[in-house]
Design a protein that fits this description.
The chain is about 60% helix and about 0% strand. By secondary structure, it is mainly alpha-helical. The protein has one domain. The chain has a two-stranded antiparallel ribbon. A hairpin with a 2-residue loop joins strand 1 and strand 2. Helix 4 crosses helix 10, helix 4 runs antiparallel to helix 14 and helix 9 packs antiparallel against helix 11.
Length: about 325
């Protein structure tokens, strides 16, 4: 594979133009490329290409359109991120409440192997997780104000404080190695199956990291698939070879997860904000139809109708 050599701003502009991209204001484009990173913005080019094998842009595609999609994805990413954070805070609260009530609120009580799954196959994972959590107690005991307060004044850290400094990834892992009866209580809060919630938390953790690092989001596909739901059926999502073509391992699958884990009001606002940003994007992109962007996202064209379907959780 040929080495990728450094290209200055003028060379970056020429590469884009050579592929058929219309750049009306080259100086403005250079400012944007320097500020946002050429290789990041260039990552949005594929949807404007004639085909997967043709590296030329479709007729009429402009740099302004490319940047509009980049800007949309940033706003879309922020919308998703803040809603994933709502769920992160919520699941931390539910887990800490259940475990504190059952095993005790002092870290010496809840950070015991007996508080987790007794399955021998998970014993190493349990011990590793407890080690990670104890390390967080030590580390944050010197810099996290609430943790410091409890250690200095009470000599312990309750779980409802510790969860604030645990990553979503650790919380997801924690749920996966809880005792089945504890998993059930937590899953019942969302009216979800134990294994479905475990899958959802792993996906949400991955999306949280993706959003936090400002990776390209709108056309992201995951290795994990969600189960078929009533939302797939009610929205009459098309199938191919017996499988739904949207809402399985794409961004609409994430929307389905959020539908089941956010409150009705939170979810209505989420869909409104996404729809608003899509409408703005539609007014800025003319070389490709919005249906092509929705397809890349895994969104059915009637995605807004998911708000009308009765939810699974009422807060």
């Amino acid at each position: 594979m040929a080495e990728k050599k450094f290209k200055n701003l003028s060379e970056q502009i020429e590469i884009m133009k050579s592929k058929g991209l219309i750049i009306n204001d080259e100086e403005d484009a250079k400012v944007i490329l320097l500020r946002e990173n050429y290789f990041f913005i260039n990552g949005y080019r594929y949807i404007f290409m004639k085909s997967k094998n043709d590296k030329k842009f479709v007729s009429g595609a402009t740099f302004d359109e490319l940047y509009a999609l980049f800007t949309f994805d940033r706003r879309f990413r922020n919308i998703i991120f803040k809603n994933v954070l709502i769920i992160e805070n919520n699941i931390k609260s539910v887990i800490s409440y259940q475990l504190s009530k059952k095993y005790g609120y002092r870290d010496k009580d809840y950070l015991r192997p007996e508080s987790f799954s007794l399955d021998r196959k998970k014993s190493r994972q349990v011990n590793d997780l407890i080690h990670k959590m104890k390390r967080q107690v030590r580390v944050n005991g010197q810099k996290h104000s609430a943790t410091m307060h409890y250690i200095n004044n009470y000599g312990y850290v309750p779980l409802w404080i510790l969860v604030k400094v645990l990553s979503f990834g650790i919380i997801s892992e924690m749920y996966s190695i809880l005792k089945p009866e504890d998993q059930l209580v937590i899953a019942d809060y969302y009216d979800l199956d134990i294994h479905v919630l475990e899958n959802y938390l792993a996906l949400l953790s991955n999306y949280r990291n993706l959003c936090a690092h400002e990776d390209i989001l709108f056309d992201n596909k995951t290795q994990r698939f969600i189960d078929d739901t009533k939302y797939h059926k009610c929205l009459d999502i098309p199938t191919m070879d017996g499988e739904y073509i949207y809402g399985k391992n794409d961004l609409f699958a994430l929307i389905i997860i959020l539908k089941q884990m956010l409150s009705d009001e939170e979810f209505r606002l989420l869909i409104y904000e996404i729809g608003y940003e899509l409408d703005i994007l539609d007014g800025k992109v003319e070389s490709i139809p919005q249906s092509k962007i929705l397809d890349a996202m895994g969104f059915p064209e009637n995605f807004r109708d998911i708000v009308k379907i009765e939810g699974d959780i009422k807060l």
